[in-house]
Structure prediction request, 130 residues.
Amino acid sequence: MKKIFIVMLMMLGCVNFASAQKKQAEIKFEKSTIDYGTFSEKDPVQSCVFRFTNVGNAPLVINQAIASCGCTVPSYTKKPIKPGEKGEVKVTYNGKGKFPGHFKKSVTIRTNGTPPMVRLYIEGTMNEVK
Prediction:
């Protein structure tokens, strides 16, 4: 009788634990690096869009998007993204006044989901005007 009671108690605990699993958002980007390729110093402003999906089971909120330097400006979907919906992070690079050549910059995304922090990268080569 004691063994049956212990087994029943353990089963009840497992059911409680399984039903109490927290719903959580989860961000999944299509790609984490975008290469602008080669562009001229005459046209120093370049933009791209990183697309993502909330593959979790709770609304996803982007809390911050922080660029590694002032020449890179991120903007992002401000409203909560429901499970299964898509959003985007637009990143604009301004090479005006910067040295020509190859560059690689990062944008750190902080969310309420998993992973809580994602790093995106842009890179390219700006050719000097002669």
User: Anything to note?
Assistant: The longest strand covers residues 101-111. The mean pLDDT is 90. Residues 49 and 90 are 4 Å apart (CA to CA).
